[in-house]
Write a structure and sequence with these properties.
Elements (H helix, E strand, L loop, with lengths): L1 E2 L2 E3 L2 E3 L4 E6 L4 E7 L3 H18 L4 H17 L1 H12 L3 H21 L6 E3 L6 E9 L2 E5 L7 H13 L2 E5 L5 H13 L7 E3 L4 H10 L3 E7 L2 H11 L5 E5 L4 E5 L5 H13 L9 E7 H16 L19 H16 L3 E4 L15 E4 L16 E7 L2 H9 L3 E2 L1 E5 L3 H10 L4 E4 L14 E2 L2 E2 L4 H6 L2 E9 L1
Parallel strand pairs: 1-5, 8-9, 8-11, 9-10, 11-12, 13-14, 13-19, 14-17, 16-17, 19-20
Antiparallel strand pairs: 2-3, 4-5, 6-7, 7-23, 12-22, 15-16, 18-21
Helix pairs in contact: 1-7, 2-4, 2-5, 2-6, 3-4, 3-6, 4-5, 9-10
Bound molecules: adenosine-5'-diphosphate.
Length: 474
């Protein structure tokens, strides 16, 4: 079994105790990582704080070169990273490779965007004054990331932070620290100065609390559950840290009567079953207009029945295992609740208990009502509940009736309707005839309780910058 060390101040660090990492496809332990706590969390901030003094003074052009070197090494080693990701997280290898490429696109994009952090001159009301605005890196950034995108949720934060001139301390999820530590290895090989990037594995609460209490940490950037996000935001208030949160979602997928059924089915398959339904922008609720409901449902069920469930390392797998047993139980309980309240199972409906992994069959439910748990809470699994609606207004109202506001999808061939519906949806991301909207150059983030701030695009770097106004008397 392999042991991975954590990366602090340019060194590979170990602790007396270790955490075990399992493969959700086999439930077998595949590696161990250090079980860091208070001490390691603090050492990492010491290193990041010290490194900030010099890193923040490098030019955007120098930082760009480092990011490009890191990009190249990740690109050259993408198969190894993808395989490690599949082993610890479960997603099919082709998806893991796709994630590595998506993750890496943040380096190339921010390597350039860092050069465009412009200031401003503001016209003064007096001839003997000059008013300037400069942008400064916020300082040490703490990034806490989830297991569903073991690489991309790190690079989406770290790339803009580094480009802006910040240094980072990262705590990856307990279930997927290996990908994070591989990324750190390539950061070291890329020659990124010690202390600029630190990855601490171990106890989330202990590490998180040290970072929350430390006044040298100026920003917390988090992707994960709404519950933990709210906790971090509350705790960050004590030292008035900047906070970016990318939390849960409950994405509606609206299919209008005038939709292209083939496109809609393809879109919903992509958005529902990616990562076995374990992404925060995965479709959670499918609203189909009455006139097209029968055709859409038939085609959808047919497409779902062709999806292959299996180990992510096997060729042709579309859906890998869920992350753990708790995830399987949650999916099962959402289905049971729906069935108890009158829903019908059109496909799947059960876990594959006879296998060695946490597998669950892709499931389609019809006759679903808005009162069912799966229509309100994030299932985070391969369950597609279908309900019908009569009018555009009804679809918008029901789609917006949620405390979440991350992603929404609408499929229609009518241009006016595409604009009307996408503008009325209270969501940070809307895919119109598009089930896969995430790209490095566009803003990703949610309305309402789905989060604060944006990652990606020029918005993503602003999150790591302070605005300084300089008034000059001449
Ligand atoms: P999920 O339900 O997807 O695992 P979590 O919000 O529990 O989402 O986890 C996302 C990240 O937040 C993980 O890295 C996890 O270790 C971390 N985390 C969980 N609880 C805390 C906490 N109290 N303080 C800091 N980080 C936490």
């Amino acid at each position: 079994m392999q042991h991975y060390s954590m990366y602090i101040n340019g060194e590979w660090v170990n602790t007396h105790n270790v955490l075990e990492v399992d493969n959700p496809a086999t439930k077998k332990i595949i590696a161990t990582v250090p079980n860091g706590g208070r001490e390691e969390a603090k050492t990492a901030v010491d290193a990041a704080h010290k490194a900030f003094r010099t890193w923040s003074k490098t030019t955007a052009y120098e930082r760009s070169e480092y990011l490009k070197r890191w990009f190249t090494l990740i690109d050259q080693n993408k198969e190894e990273i993808a395989k490690t990701m599949t082993m610890e997280q479960g997603k099919p290898l082709k998806e893991a490779l796709g994630e590595v490429q998506y993750a890496n696109s943040f380096f190339t994009w921010y390597a350039e965007e860092g050069k465009r952090v412009y200031g401003e001159t503001i016209p003064a009301a007096h001839s003997d004054k000059r008013l300037l605005v400069q942008k400064h890196p916020v300082g040490v950034v703490a990034a806490i990331t989830p297991w569903n995108f073991p690489a991309a949720m790190i690079t989406r934060k770290v790339a803009p932070a580094l480009a802006a001139g910040c240094t980072v301390v990262v705590k990856p999820a307990e279930s997927t620290p290996l990908t994070a530590l591989l990324l750190a290895k390539f950061a070291q090989e890329a020659g990124i100065p010690k202390g600029v990037v630190n990855v601490v594995t171990g106890d989330p609460k202990e590490i998180g609390n040290v970072w929350l209490d430390d006044t040298r940490v100026k920003k917390i950037t988090f992707t994960g559950s709404t519950e933990v996000g709210k906790y971090l935001m509350r705790r960050a208030a004590d030292t008035v840290k900047k906070v970016s949160l990318e939390l849960g979602g409950h994405a509606p997928f609206i299919v209008m009567d005038d939709a292209d059924v083939e496109k809609a089915v393809e879109g919903v398959i992509e958005s529902k079953f990616r990562n076995a339904g374990q992404t925060c922008i995965c479709t959670n609720r499918i609203y189909v207009q009455e006139g097209i409901a029968e055709t859409f449902t038939q085609e959808f069920v047919k497409a779902v029945s062709e999806l292959k469930v299996g180990s992510g390392l096997e060729e042709g797998t579309d859906i890998g295992p869920l992350i753990n047993d708790k995830a399987v139980e949650k999916v099962q309980s959402h289905i049971s609740d729906a069935v108890d309240k009158g829903a019908k199972i059109l496909a799947g409906g059960n876990a594959l208990r006879e296998t060695n992994g946490y597998y669950f069959k892709p499931t389609v439910l019809s006759g679903v009502t808005d009162e069912m748990v799966c229509m309100k809470e994030e299932t985070f699994g391969p369950v597609a509940p279908i309900t019908t609606f009569k009018t555009e207004e009804e679809a918008i109202e029901r789609a917006n009736n949620s405390p979440y506001g991350l992603a929404a999808y609408v499929f229609t061939e009518n241009l006016g309707r595409a604009f009307r519906v996408s503008e009325d949806l209270e969501y940070g991301i809307v895919g119109v005839n598009d089930g896969t909207p995430s790209v490095a150059q566009a803003p990703f983030g949610g309305f309402k309780e789905s989060g604060l701030g944006r990652e990606g695009g020029h918005y993503g770097i602003e999150e790591f910058l302070e605005v300084k106004y300089i008034s000059i008397g001449i």
